[in-house]
């Protein structure tokens, strides 16, 4: 199996594990088991970040980070008719989750399936099915249980604050397109897991000490705001390259971000990333994202004295039902390998 195939397999595995922000114990257990298999030392922080020590140089360490928390929701309240009002975790329009299957996880480890609808879902009954505003008052979870009242739902053990995870619908087509919710940022996490295997296999010779960090709170803005080892002088977020108008990024390339809504990324790091992309002869773009901020930005805002950068495979329809291509995964992995070999 090639390293690219390995990365795709890891991404698919990760996408299938529910992990809305703050509900990441399951996916962290998966990652810890994978890291143990590879034989690397790791630390699981109090804030539920996983930091993996990949060894090599003694100082001037570089930390590569990806987040495994995703968009999701919580039960806000239980309606008198037994349906659930929800509150969003992360930033997305309610229209992006309409008609999506979901799972409600209770505090006593029960799981109940359901579907998210707008409150007027039938065109044969309502004349505003297509026009009703999609918001927290007009979108609800209908449980796959025979419930008719708030009391019926409470008897299942469901309470406000319970997590709601959306079905990922992960598909890899014969033509190399990977479609799924949560490629942001499970694509990045799968790439970093594979990069760790590349380093274990001595396929590349890194020039610096390397850490990998998987975080649990990126979607709400503070994933990498703590826990970075003291010897780290540079952090690079391996997240997604957003695709859209006025951007060069596409689903076949790796995107190097020069600036996002948090401000410009470090000039030297961006330049070195571009050089690594050129030397590795991969398709790449340099982009500016108007509505984006990364874990690398969170680290800088938290006061860490580090240079920072951001790259990722091009991903279409971010924060919705996302899609990328095997070519973009390969380009991101090759760029990282070359970057680590540069002085």
From TrEMBL:
Hydrolase is among the record's keywords: yes
TM spans (from-to): none
Keywords, comma-separated and alphabetical: Aminopeptidase, Hydrolase, Metal-binding, Protease
Domain of life according to the entry: Bacteria
Matching CDD domains: M42_glucanase_like
Pfam families: Peptidase_M42
Coiled coil spans: none
Family: Belongs to the peptidase M42 family.
Name of protein: Peptidase M42
């Amino acid at each position: 199996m090639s390293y690219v195939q390995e990365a795709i397999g890891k991404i698919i595995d990760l996408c299938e594990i529910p992990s809305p922000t703050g509900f990441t114990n399951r996916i962290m257990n998966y990652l810890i088991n994978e890291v143990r298999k590879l034989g690397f030392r790791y630390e699981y922080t109090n804030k539920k970040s996983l930091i993996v020590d990949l060894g090599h140089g003694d100082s001037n360490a570089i930390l590569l980070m990806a987040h495994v928390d995703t968009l999701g929701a919580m039960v806000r309240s239980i309606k008198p008719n037994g349906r659930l009002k929800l509150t969003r975790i992360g930033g997305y329009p309610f229209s992006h989750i309409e008609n999506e299957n979901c799972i409600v996880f209770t505090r006593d480890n029960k799981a109940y399936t359901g579907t998210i609808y707008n409150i007027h879902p039938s065109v044969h009954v309502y004349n505003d099915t297509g026009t009703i505003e999609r918001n927290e008052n007009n979108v609800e979870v209908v449980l796959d249980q025979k419930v008719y009242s708030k009391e019926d739902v409470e008897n299942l053990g469901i309470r406000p604050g319970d997590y709601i995870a959306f079905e990922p619908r992960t598909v890899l087509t014969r033509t190399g397109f990977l479609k799924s919710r949560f490629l942001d940022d499970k694509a990045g996490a799968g790439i970093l897991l594979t990069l760790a295997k590349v380093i274990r296999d001595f396929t590349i010779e890194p020039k610096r000490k390397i850490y990998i960090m998987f975080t649990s709170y990126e979607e709400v803005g503070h994933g990498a705001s703590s826990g970075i080892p003291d010897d780290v002088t540079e952090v690079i977020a391996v997240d997604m390259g957003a695709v859209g108008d006025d951007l060069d990024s596409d689903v076949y390339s790796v995107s190097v971000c020069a600036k996002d809504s948090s401000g410009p990324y470090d000039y030297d790091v961006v330049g070195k990333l571009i050089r690594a992309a050129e030397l590795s002869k991969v398709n790449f773009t340099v982009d500016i994202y108007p509505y984006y901020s990364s874990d690398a930005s969170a680290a800088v805002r938290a006061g860490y004295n580090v240079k920072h950068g951001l790259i990722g495979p091009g991903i279409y329809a971010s924060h919705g039902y996302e899609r990328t291509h095997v070519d973009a995964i390969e380009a991101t992995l090759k760029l990282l390998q070359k970057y680590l070999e540069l002085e």
